[in-house]
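Q: Convert this sequence to C-alpha cells.
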Amino acid sequence: VQLQAFGGGSVQAGGSLRLSCAASGSIVSSNVLGWYRQAPGKQRELVAILTRGGSTNYADSVKGRFTISRDNAKNTVYLQMNSLKPEDTAVYYCNALYEMGRAYWGQGTQVTVSS
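A:
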C-alpha cells in the first residue's frame, strides 16, 4: 500500500486547511488510520487517529479544531484543520496500520501557519 498526502500549504492564523491521504490499496481493512506531524527540531507526534470501528482520538492540542475522517470508496483519509495556529506548523504525515503490524506512511505535506 502506498500513501500519498496532499493539501498542505501556507495560511494565516485562524484559517483552515484540509489534508487528504490517498491510498493505493483498500483502507477498509486497515485497523487504524492516522495523521502525525513533525515540527522542525521536534519529534514526530500523533495528531489524530481513526479506528476501523470509527473511534477517534486526538492530541489535546488539536481537540475541537481538527477532524479526521475517511472515505472508503475513495480509499482516502482526511484531516480537516480549522482555527489553525502558528504552532500547528509542521510536516504532516498520514499512516495506515493493518493486520500483522504492517504499517505504511505517506511522504508528508508541509503546513505553515503565519501569525
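The mean pLDDT is 96.
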